[in-house]
Specification:
single chain; 100 residues; alpha+beta; four-stranded antiparallel beta sheet; 4 strands; binds adenosine-5'-triphosphate; binds magnesium ion
Length: 100
């Protein structure tokens, strides 16, 4: 929400894929520059310093998300295009116990 204008769109989707469960969040906001992209999962890293300072934040969101996901045996992947948007996908292994 912080990186997408109020006129923009954020889509949340989820479902099963093979032996995994996915959760996908797609926005059509600012996107992430090529320069920032390799660093966004680092603790306290914030892209585009001037703008991100005005918007507030700690630079911890994605690193905490990655940590939680990996502690649950999952993975997180981020794709982004500057000025077009960002897609984050989280994959978790399906629990054997939850299967019928
Ligand atoms: N959906 C997004 N669209 C564009 N840029 C993003 C997006 N998510 C993260 N970023 C970029 O990646 C950087 C790191 O993101 P992260 O979520 O870790 O921290 P943050 O959003 O700055 O602060 P917070 O701790 O409040 O989440 C951000 O500063 C921003 O530049
Ligand atoms: Mg964040």
């Amino acid at each position: 929400m912080k990186y997408t204008p109020s006129s923009g769109k954020i889509e949340v989707a989820g479902g099963y894929r093979g032996h995994s469960v996915y959760i996908r969040v797609t926005d059509n906001g600012s996107g992430i520059s090529e320069e920032d992209l390799p660093h966004v999962f680092e603790r306290f890293y914030r892209g585009d310093k001037a703008r991100s300072r005005a918007e507030g934040g700690t630079g911890l969101g994605l690193s905490i998300a990655k940590w939680i996901v990996e502690e649950h045996g999952g993975s997180i992947q981020l794709d982004s295009q500057p000025d077009h948007g960002t897609r984050v996908e989280v994959l978790f292994p399906r629990s054997k116990r939850a299967e019928p």
